[in-house]
Amino acid sequence: MKAAEDKIAKLCYEHIGGKLGNLLLEQFVAKGWLAKHHATDKNYYITQKGTLEFTKLGIDLSLIPS
What is the pTM of this model? Predict the structure, then answer.
């Protein structure tokens, strides 16, 4: 039985989806870790600051395919 305070972290294929995924994306953009070249672009890129900060968190960015 789930506790009322439990929140769902939805897995969508190999990605975090749902509200948690949206909140993470919003924060990564706000902190300057992720950005778009143009506002209309669908995809984001990892900024230099993002590379530094994700690495500090122990995330191996070399595992992301080019």
Answer: 0.80
